Each structure stands twice: as structure tokens, then as C-alpha cells.
Amino acid sequence: MDAYEAADHVLPLDGPYQPDQVVTAARLIGELVRRLNRATVTGHALPSPGDLYGLLGGITEAVAGLGQLLTQLADRADEFAEHPRLTHAHHPAEAWFAATQAANLLQRANTARGDLYQHLADAWARTGSLGLQTQD
After folding, report:
1. In the structure, how many helices (H) and strands (E) does the chain have?
2. What's the mean pLDDT in 53-73?
3. Quick one: pLDDT at residue 48?
4. What are phi and psi of 132, to 5 degrees?
5. Beta-carbon neighbour count of residue 45 at 10 Å?
6. What is the chain's alpha carbon radius of gyration, rounded to the nearest angstrom?
7. What pLDDT sits at residue 136?
8. Is residue 110 a contact partner of residue 74, using CB atoms and an 8 Å limit?
9. CB 74 within 8 A of CB 107
10. Which among 26, 90, 98, 106 is placed 20 to 30 Å from 8, CA to CA?
11. Which residues does 109 contact at the CB level (< 8 Å), separation at least 6?
């Protein structure tokens, strides 16, 4: 199973989209990062510079895609801020403020993501020409 097939199993690209599937997909990202952390503790999972290059490519593409996602989530938080039935579990009078602050924080996260993306893209590019010489 390739990455596209695995992703389609959790959240089909063309929908239909259900809230629980969307949340599960987001949680899966976190779980996959946890597993990548574990897999890369030693060099066994990345025996060659080409493997590092491939991993960096996947991570760079993921961070690039987060830009659109964060923008859309910020827009949705702004939409909720204007919803007449929006409430807050602990402070109902602060619902609008909480939603608009969430939107603002998501926009700031997207700005920070731009720097992260650039550093990753640079690292990815620099590893593209690396290799290991064979032993004679």
C-alpha cells in the first residue's frame, strides 16, 4: 500500500467528508510523526543520504500543505465567530473573542510555518546530491 492508498483509507481525497474522518486524519498526522520520531532514533531507518532526502521531501511537502490548511482553519474560526449561536463552555460572553483569537493564532502559526518550510526545503535541496562511496 502506498501513501496515497493509505490516506484514501482514512480520508478519501474526493470525499464525502465526515467530521470524525477529518479529525481522525489530523490525529493520524500526529501519530505518524511519533512513529517517525521512533524510527529515526538510530540510523537504521535511514541507511543512506538518499533515504534522508526522501524523508525530508515528504516532511517538506507536508509543511507546505499546512499553509492552505491553516488558512482554511483560520477562516472557519472567523466564520464561527460570526455565528449567532456561538457559545463558550465556561464564559459564554467570551465566545466571539475566543474564536477570533483562535483565527489570529492560526494565521500567526501559518506565518511561522513559512520559515519552517524554507529551512526544510533548503535542507532537502542540500541532501539531494549526497551519497556514500562504495568501499573498495
Report:
1. 4, 0
2. 97
3. 96
4. -115, 135
5. 13
6. 20
7. 73
8. yes
9. yes
10. 106
11. 70
Distance CA 121, CA 60 (A): 6
From residue 117, alpha-carbon distances to 26, 56, 125, 131, 136 in Å are: 19, 11, 12, 24, 39
The closest of 69, 56, 62, 55 to 109, measured between CA atoms, is 69
Scanning the structure block, which residue is given the C-alpha cell 465566545?
95
Residue 17 is predicted with a pLDDT of: 94
Residue that has been written with the C-alpha cell 546530491 in this structure: 129
For residue 121, what are the contacts with CB-CB under 8 A and spacing of at least 6?
60, 64
What integer pLDDT is reported at residue 95 of this predicted model? 94
Q: Is the dihedral of CA 22, 72, 110, 58 positive or negative?
A: positive
